[in-house]
Amino acid sequence: MTEQLQPITNSYYTQERIKGDLDYSRAQTIAKMMLDNGLISVAECNKLIAINRETFSPLFAEIMPKIT
């Protein structure tokens, strides 16, 4: 007997939300690299973080810390 696996559907974890999280993570990595290489200041990095949160709407944006 072979069973077929049925995809789990969940309205919270949509393809769009998962893609937003991945895009957010990539954007954050780039912002952190720019900060580490002295291309931007901490204040500018925090502005980028805020923009990234609005743009990509990551799942846990409200609890993610700023860079200090």
Automatic annotation (TrEMBL):
Domain SHOCT-like: residue ranges:
14-64
Say which species the protein is native to. Blautia liquoris
- Write the protein's name: SHOCT-like domain-containing protein
